[in-house]
Amino acid sequence: MTDWSPRPSTDQETAPLLRDPDADEDNAENEEPTMMDRINSVAQEPLTPLTKVLLVIALILLLLSSVFIGLFAGVQHKLNVERGRHNEEPPSTISVTLTATATATSTSIATTTASSPSPTRKPEEANSPYYHLPVCLTGDCIMLAASILSSLDTKQDPCENFYEFANGGWLRAHPLPADKGSFGNFEALAQDNEHVIQRILEDKTSTSSFITSYDDQILAKLRGFYTSCMNESYLDERGHEPLMVVVNNIRQMFRGKQVVIREENERNKFEGMTNALAYMHSRGLGALFSFDIEGDVGVDPNLLVLWFSQPSLGLPSKEYYEEDDIRAVYQNVLEQLLLAVSEEDEQKVQRPFKASPALVQQSSIWPPWPWPPWGGDDDGDNDDGGKPPRNATKRAHELAKEVVNFETQIARASLDLDILYQDPIATYNPVPISNLTSALPQIHFNEYFSTFAPRTYPDRVIITYPPYIHSLSEILNSTSADVVEAYLVVRAALQLSPYLGMGTEAWQAQRTLVETLSGISKGAVGDRAEYCVGQVEEALGFAAGRYFVNETFSGESKEKDIVKSFRKSLKSIDWMDNQSAKAASDKAQAIRVKVGYPLSPDTTNPASIAFYYAKVSGNENTFFENVLSASANNEIRSWLQLGKQRDVNAWEMYPSMVNAYFNPPANEIVFPAGILQPPFFKKDWPAYISYGAFGHVASHELTHAFDSAGRLYNPQGKLEQWWTNQTSDGFQAKQDCIIKQFSAYSIDDGKGGRVYINGNLTSGENIGDTGLIQAYRAWKSQYHSSHDAGNEYLLPGLPYTREQLFFISFARVWARSMKPAAAVQRIRTDPHSPSKFRVDGTVSNIPEFAEAFKCPSNAKLNPPPEKQCVFWGRS
């Protein structure tokens, strides 16, 4: 007969680990002892170290078990009680006692309190045949329910402060790390994604299923890049050497240390500035101006043409240049950078045109490195005979002050970000290329373009802000060559110093600026592996994405339902006439939705990935050069598209990125695989959770097609008036409403003052957030079929309706802690509003939210209809 009894545990084996030899001899002569005798005998034995360890482990396990059972019993009891009650009731207490024979006794008390206000299910819902489904008690369901419960702060009134109600628990449990100025659920998921990639980079067996030779090349490049970043001791050993190579190239090019045939009357004090700028821009180092290759939205959105715009700045936005305390910090940082790369250090490094092994590895990059390809003087002489300044510190101080003044003029001449980001008509100014070259004669654009597009000299350029060109020319004319050279040097040093060893003066100088602007604790540096994985993603994101997608992507989402719901709602919008509604429906239908990973480069094809990153070195010993080669690869690849048709399979984000975007000229929405994971999405979640979380992300991006900027692009991505005047006027009234609403919100600047949101800058994103109602309607429209399919099941211990949980799921993804300095920087530079206002400001414009939470008419988040900015009609 088969014995189905359980196998004995380790401590029940016939040869136990714990024995008393003396007791064994005595018992051999006596009768079989009773169970109580055995227990007393064991209890009186002296405890060996091993016994003590086992007892502690047993005690810990029992305590954990009792706590879990107590919590589970508590939430189950509360669930049963909540189903039958509609009013407040006293706290319920469940006591669970576990006794372990001859070991320990543990008592756990779990108390649940129905706090005020406590949203409950409506009686009519409880009686609905579509409401009742068995409560899911699987491990995944319990964990999801626990995650939601732990994120809440039920002391908050959801009708007054919904963001804190939905996220207060999460915020308490996730204090801001000292090395970060901001951290939220987006960053938390990004860290999880990075851990996946880190395993791929460190564990060579994790990708054993990929056996092609191309995969061998790709993985070697990825792992080499990662290893070069992790080798901190070698970075410190190299010191400033790699940065000095770049700086010395800039200096020698700027000073005309190459053979250039040009008429004598064309020579000026900025003789070599064109070559120096081309060298910098070809490696992604911004200065003076910027070029982008994007569609000609006024003629053919898929024809890629040249766009001229203002540059990035050393400080995040122009407002910072008007603050004395920030200017003082910035000037000191620039002074330290100038000292770190002073010409006194040139004797310590190899000269840039005597190629070191690191530079030889760059020979496959085009344009060649060093640049220009025709070479230059190799003697290292400066205009002053190669001698360093007599007082380098004083000179660095003077130059830093002048550079700050120079850059302040550039900032003041730049277009405000709210117009740059939100007004595509004002920033579309096509002109013949001759207009640019004549307005900015200090730059020899024929030489500049030959660096990037030797076979395609553009005959037309689109200028985002024409006055900037004339202002820049005037600024250059009134500035000495030494100051402009110093500006180029510090722009390069500021952008590249993070890739040096942390012991270098340049790294420490730029870090001071980062700490000041973001509020990071002084000297607090995060995990190096996390940083290095991020660098791999930024440089080789599509390559890493091939292996990330293989491990994580499920291939499902809900965006099609939301597009369908959006098109349906267009018929009932009060400010949109029938003609415009039909056109808007056609645009929504024409949107290309891309999910998971790109086909250009083709993530499923290793040969495509290998070719895409062929020019990136990935050498294990040259992190600095790896970063530069990746930047050069991206710049040249972009320029090679000039004059060609858009690649409809290309993406702007790599697969592991926790983000999504809408591209107006391409009329496409992209959802990388990185965001299709908890807390945003999981394929077996109940639908009301999925639609509230990822559904909002999808509806947000869809709504961008009809926001303050997106609405100006027709279904083919062309910039034109495709709505009627009546509809455009109606939309403008709604936009003005939301601008006024968000302009009234403010944050603490950490200095005793308030900084108000720029309602114009954030209007597009705020309108995008109004798309939450489309996700809600999409969920409602499929509810009955979803319920019948078992996808609207309940979760244990959650005393909230499905409608309430939809909105809670939406709010939870925006949980974020932020230092005041980082919050100020975000308000000045980011078109997204702070998380609190993205939540509370959005739901205050959705009547369905107030209905779900039974908000009284005088509640903060239930304003009267005339004060609501309702974009997409009422149910």
Automatic annotation (TrEMBL):
<feature type="domain" description="Peptidase M13 N-terminal">
    <location>
        <begin position="158"/>
        <end position="598"/>
    </location>
</feature>
<keyword id="KW-1133">Transmembrane helix</keyword>
<feature type="region of interest" description="Disordered">
    <location>
        <begin position="371"/>
        <end position="394"/>
    </location>
</feature>
<keyword id="KW-0862">Zinc</keyword>
<dbReference type="GO" id="GO:0016485">
    <property type="term" value="P:protein processing"/>
</dbReference>
<dbReference type="Pfam" id="PF01431">
    <property type="entry name" value="Peptidase_M13"/>
</dbReference>
<dbReference type="InterPro" id="IPR008753">
    <property type="entry name" value="Peptidase_M13_N"/>
</dbReference>
<feature type="region of interest" description="Disordered">
    <location>
        <begin position="1"/>
        <end position="30"/>
    </location>
</feature>
<keyword id="KW-0472">Membrane</keyword>
<dbReference type="InterPro" id="IPR042089">
    <property type="entry name" value="Peptidase_M13_dom_2"/>
</dbReference>
<keyword id="KW-0645">Protease</keyword>
<dbReference type="GO" id="GO:0005886">
    <property type="term" value="C:plasma membrane"/>
</dbReference>
<keyword id="KW-0479">Metal-binding</keyword>
<feature type="compositionally biased region" description="Low complexity">
    <location>
        <begin position="105"/>
        <end position="119"/>
    </location>
</feature>
<dbReference type="InterPro" id="IPR018497">
    <property type="entry name" value="Peptidase_M13_C"/>
</dbReference>
<protein>
    <recommendedName>
        <fullName>Endothelin-converting enzyme 1</fullName>
    </recommendedName>
</protein>
<keyword id="KW-0482">Metalloprotease</keyword>
<comment type="similarity">
    <text>Belongs to the peptidase M13 family.</text>
</comment>
<dbReference type="GO" id="GO:0046872">
    <property type="term" value="F:metal ion binding"/>
</dbReference>
<dbReference type="InterPro" id="IPR024079">
    <property type="entry name" value="MetalloPept_cat_dom_sf"/>
</dbReference>
<dbReference type="GO" id="GO:0004222">
    <property type="term" value="F:metalloendopeptidase activity"/>
</dbReference>
<keyword id="KW-0378">Hydrolase</keyword>
<feature type="domain" description="Peptidase M13 C-terminal">
    <location>
        <begin position="659"/>
        <end position="869"/>
    </location>
</feature>
<feature type="transmembrane region" description="Helical">
    <location>
        <begin position="53"/>
        <end position="75"/>
    </location>
</feature>
<keyword id="KW-0812">Transmembrane</keyword>
<dbReference type="InterPro" id="IPR000718">
    <property type="entry name" value="Peptidase_M13"/>
</dbReference>
<feature type="region of interest" description="Disordered">
    <location>
        <begin position="105"/>
        <end position="126"/>
    </location>
</feature>
<dbReference type="Pfam" id="PF05649">
    <property type="entry name" value="Peptidase_M13_N"/>
</dbReference>
